[in-house]
Structure formats: structure tokens, C-alpha cells
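Researcher: Quick test of sequence recovery. C-alpha cells follow.
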């Protein structure tokens, strides 16, 4: 049974700001109160990165192994209710949202809610600079880092020049065989022109295929994220082959050009898992830049790429 909520008209005064800046993403702008720092060549507002880290720490403290995503779904619902015009839980338990921002392509952002295994009882999160790790068991940044990235983009999207609709899908049971994404409602998926999954280890990878054998998108769609990286001062974002993720489902089952982007975690599924908060934040900057500059046109949908 789908739940649905439409935002009251009084919220719609939150129009996109008129930007004179031509580069970067609003998330990377200086706060009037905050200083600036340079992280791997990207100028970030300290306050914004601190707020992002705070958001990620909150998500990392919520349990939710595959099939037990209730608490993380509730936490996301409570945040998205202030952002999305449409918000519902589908029959599989996926949390779906839409954020209309004018006329243009519909772009799906997606991350999975389930953890590979349950968080260890009494574990602590240790911070060493921008790096986080757990004192016991997995950290859970796979894929809470991806969730934090998508929340950051959704939170700031109306301050960009993006024109179109942002759709969000937070999936269940990804870790046990991409179960949730396969059951997403075709009616929700039908108008989506392009998808961005935030669930790749490491930094600066734009995954455009499964092992180089099963394409997620045409080459041009992957390359537009390289261009966004260059625009945002991160020219080392590069397309590459990768592993299994919901991006494969969006591409192969729904015919949607998709990429899976690095979100800064490493050694996932082990006690050595870490996440680099600054790297995850930079992924939000990358997506925001691609949307702000309207690099995603939707022209690649249903192209010849799907079957090679
Ligand atoms: Zn994952």
C-alpha cells in the first residue's frame, strides 16, 4: 500500500535562486560565517562540510540490515517531507520521492537503505580528520554515504539552475541481490530519463558498466560526469567498469542510462570499513554541478547502448 503526501502550496515559494555564478555548485560556496578550506583542489565551505558530516554520522548510527530497513526509512521520510512534493513507500518497502524543479528531464538519484550486516552492539564511530571508522563490525557507510550525498543534493537543488524533476529512490534489500530496485513501481520509473546511483567505493569513479560486459549507459552519459568534475575543479573523475549495483537494474530492467558514483567508502563489508566525509561531500558537489549546468538532457534514453 503506497502512502502519498503532497506538499502544501504555501511551500512552493521556494523558487530556484537566480545565479550569476557559472561554475561549481551552491553547496561548495562559502558561508557568510564560515572560512574556506581546500580539499583535493575543491574549495569547500567549512560549515557546509561540517553539516554534511553531522548528517552522515546521524545516518551511520541507524541500524537496518536487509529486510529490516524500517528505522532508516522513517528517518529519511522525516527529512524528505520538508523537501519533496511527492513521497511514498512502495509495496516492496522502497522509499520514493519527487522534487519538481520546472520543465526538463527527470533524473533519478538512488542509494540503498540496507546494511550488509547489523551494526555491532555498543560500537563507536571514531573520527580522524575527515575519515570515519567503527570500533567494531562494519561502519555502514555502504551505503549510508550514498544516502547522505543524495540528501545533500536534494536539500540544495532548488538553489541551482536545474530545470526538471528530481526523483529519489532509497531501495531495500540491495545487499541480498538487488531485490528492492527490481520491484520499483514501473509507473514511478516510466518518465525517468537518466539515473545516478551513489554506491561505489573509493573516490572519483564513474561506473558505466558491470565488469565492462553489461553497459549501464552510452559513453556520452558517463562522460558528462567527467565534464561536471572538470567544471567543479575535480578533473580526475573518470569513467570505469565496476561491480553489481542498482545501476544495473535501472539500465537493464528499466532501460534508463545510469552511472554509479564513488561516495568515499572503502573496505566495505569488513571491520576495516572507512569513509572519507570530504570525498562523499565532493560527490554531492559533482552531482549538483551536473544538474546546475543542465548537462543531463535525457537524450540518451532507450538508445542502442542497452544491448551493446
Ligand atoms: Zn552498497
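Model:
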Amino acid at each position: 500500500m503506497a502512502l502519498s503526501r503532497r506538499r502544501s502550496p504555501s511551500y512552493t515559494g521556494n523558487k530556484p535562486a537566480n545565479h550569476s555564478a557559472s561554475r561549481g555548485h551552491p553547496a561548495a560556496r562559502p558561508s557568510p560565517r564560515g572560512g574556506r578550506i581546500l580539499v583535493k583542489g575543491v574549495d569547500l565551505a567549512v560549515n557546509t562540510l561540517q553539516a554534511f558530516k553531522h548528517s552522515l554520522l546521524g545516518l551511520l548510527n541507524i541500524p537496518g540490515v536487509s529486510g529490516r530497513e524500517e528505522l532508516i526509512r522513517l528517518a529519511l521520510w522525516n527529512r524528505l517531507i520538508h523537501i519533496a512534493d511527492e513521497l511514498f513507500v512502495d509495496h516492496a518497502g522502497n522509499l520514493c520521492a519527487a522534487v519538481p524543479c520546472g520543465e526538463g528531464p527527470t533524473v533519478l538519484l538512488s542509494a540503498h537503505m540496507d546494511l550488509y550486516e547489523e551494526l555491532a552492539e555498543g560500537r563507536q564511530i571514531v573520527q580522524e580528520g575527515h575519515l570515519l571508522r567503527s570500533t567494531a563490525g562494519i561502519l555502514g557507510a555502504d551505503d549510508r554515504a550514498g544516502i547522505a550525498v543524495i540528501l545533500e543534493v536534494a536539500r540544495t537543488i532548488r538553489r541551482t539552475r536545474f530545470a526538471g524533476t528530481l526523483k529519489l529512490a532509497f531501495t531495500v534489500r540491495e545487499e541480498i541481490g538487488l531485490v528492492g530496485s527490481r520491484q520499483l513501481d514501473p509507473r514511478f520509473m516510466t518518465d525517468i530519463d537518466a539515473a545516478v546511483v551513489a554506491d561505489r567505493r573509493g573516490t572519483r569513479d564513474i561506473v558505466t558498466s558491470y565488469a565492462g560486459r553489461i553497459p549501464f549507459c552510452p559513453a556520452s552519459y558517463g562522460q558528462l560526469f567527467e565534464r561536471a568534475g572538470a567544471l567543479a575543479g575535480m578533473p580526475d573523475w573518470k569513467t570505469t567498469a565496476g561491480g553489481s549495483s542498482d545501476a544495473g537494474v535501472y539500465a537493464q530492467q528499466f532501460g534508463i542510462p545510469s552511472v554509479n558514483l564513488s561516495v568515499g567508502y572503502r573496505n566495505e563489508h569488513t571491520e576495516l570499513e572507512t569513509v572519507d566525509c570530504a570525498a562523499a561531500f565532493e560527490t554531492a558537489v559533482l552531482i549538483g554541478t551536473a544538474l546546475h549546468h543542465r548537462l543531463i538532457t535525457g537524450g540518451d534514453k532507450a538508445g542502442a547502448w542497452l544491448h551493446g
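Residues 26-297 form a domain with the Aminopeptidase fold (CATH 3.40.630.10).
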